[in-house]
Records
---
Amino acid sequence: MTYHRPDSALLAKAETLTEALPYLQRYAGKTFVVKYGGHAMGDPELQRDFAEDVVLLKQVGINPVVVHGGGPQIGSMLKRLGVESQFVNGLRVTDAETAKIAEMVLAGSINKDIVGWIGQAGGRAVGISGKDAGLVLAEKVGVRDPDPLQGIERHVDLGFVGEPVAVDRRILDTLSAADIIPVVAPVGIGADGQTYNINADTMAGAIASAMGASRFFLLTDVAGVLDKQGDLMSDLSPADVLRLQRDGTITGGMIPKVQTCVAAVQSGVDAAVILDGRIPHAMLLEIFTRQGAGTLVSARGR
Ligand SMILES: Nc1ncnc2c1ncn2[C@@H]1O[C@H](COP(=O)(O)OP(=O)(O)O)[C@@H](O)[C@H]1O
Ligand SMILES: CC(=O)N[C@@H](CCC(=O)OP(=O)(O)O)C(=O)O
């Protein structure tokens, strides 16, 4: 019998799988919370890659929980309807009409699209919002807005913008135990029954903390946190984050992202990673290979 050595491309595939082995062993049974940002939803190919990654995680025994955004999609809908919209420190000022439209786009449209993509990739997902089964109890947010011209801080009323004050994880546990991937829209309800629009990063962070997640990924449309020269910073501690926010390196939509990462690692999540969702299979590369991508926020670094 002649012995044929497999060609190098085939061997490389086997090596990739064996490289993944220690990670597969380490992460089996753990919970990963994945925040899928509106900007990362890009084109159908990236959507398919994302769904495949999530299904693969579930298949290898990890419990993924997806929390999604949809800021740009809410923006287009508001524009179509002729409703003005404004952001303060990365948060959308939300009046009653905007809250209704945001909920419609997030929980009614994007949420079900993602459920569909996961289904197409061979997984089973159920889409819910923070309102379902009392998942997220929200409270109205008040924000200090530093006014660069006046050098003062003023309080801004953001309207129906909420922050999670309590997470009841039972619905997520129930779904995960039934081999169903939960997909969560960032909408919550107040004790008074009021619907709140919640920044998706903040929502995902609260869920990651409540789940005691091992990993928390935030998929966005930049390589990670960039310094003033535009270079990627691959490791940040909570103290670094504070400094970069104070010196104006981190602004806009990156503010809730890094704040959420810090809160998550301080409440027991092992590590939070801001990842470039424009890279195909960004999550799998981060989880199962030696090359970390994006910016990792942790108390101790990579
Ligand atoms: N230091 C920084 N590094 C990277 N991005 C930054 C930084 N400061 C501000 N940003 C902005 O934050 C944006 C990401 O936040 P956001 O638009 O809310 O994304 P998503 O929709 O994925 O949540 C980037 O596209 C960039 O414009
Ligand atoms: C209060 C607030 O800002 N809510 C966000 C919710 C969606 C979101 O956060 O989406 P991304 O993750 O895609 O940015 C909004 O209205 O845009």
---
Amino acid sequence: MTRMTTPLTLSQLTKRYAQVTALSEVTLTVEPGQRVALLGHNGAGKSTLMKIVLGLIPHDGGEVRVMGAPPGSALARDATAYLPESVAFHPALTGREQIAHYLRLRGRPASGAADILARVGLADALDRRIGTYSKGMRQRVGLAQALIGDPRLLVLDEPTSGLDPVSRRDFYTLLDELAARGAAILLSSHALTEVEARTDLIAILSRGKLVAQGSITDLRARADLPLTIQITVAEGGEPAVRAAFPGAEFAGRGAQIWVPQTDKLAMLGRIAELGSHVADVDLFPPSLEDIYTQISRRDAA
Ligand SMILES: Nc1ncnc2c1ncn2[C@@H]1O[C@H](COP(=O)(O)OP(=O)(O)OP(=O)(O)O)[C@@H](O)[C@H]1O
């Protein structure tokens, strides 16, 4: 049986700058095809973690392995691609010329540029100058550069900051395709709502410590926040709904109640008993923003 090498393993990773412990015993793995989002406030240690994985700075404690090899080794570098937060390209070059240049630097035939650019959806803009590209298109050139050599691990530093919603969606679709082909993806983001839907695992860093990691479902359970039930009250049904739920907040035809996850079904049963007094019901689980705030706050306490 052949076992696939884990693209990224961090065990008990610790990094200190003079006065600051930027990372404290961080343990995290990214498997082939897995999309992991690293979340954290400014200064949480996200960039430090990425720089260590890329072999750009040393660490003080613990172990890091990229495809089983030390970061910065030839094997690790060959397997890893990096997309920095802001990528600067030469505005006078065309997309094709820019990627051909990177291909040559990596010792690969420049003729592959068109194929790579087609993979990121830039087939129609190959021979236009990058200076005329939109921000989303430039971000795609950055990703095209990162795809050279079919990396096993993609490290993306806030890849969607400054992109509009459509460009973001397209960008995540591309990442899904790469993950489906087996690439491991580690990205940092401040945009919580988008990583909620588009990643497999969320890791929350707070002042250098990994305070939570798991799927959004795991994190929801851990944060143990109430969910919101929104009742649309039927014509004339308000007195009955008020009597049944004295704690509800009313606004127009809507009534909101908050219930612990564990009481959800019981509460829905009680709403059903109100029969025709209720026109509709919607359930809203706590958002990733709520969970993130709750977990970081708990850690700071
Ligand atoms: N070269 C350095 N020398 C000293 N301290 C540093 C250095 N680089 C980072 N730090 C400190 O380490 C901590 C982690 O910084 P890091 O840049 O990794 O955070 P981050 O999560 O990437 O933040 P941001 O979201 O703002 O980019 C911060 O307290 C920062 O001030």
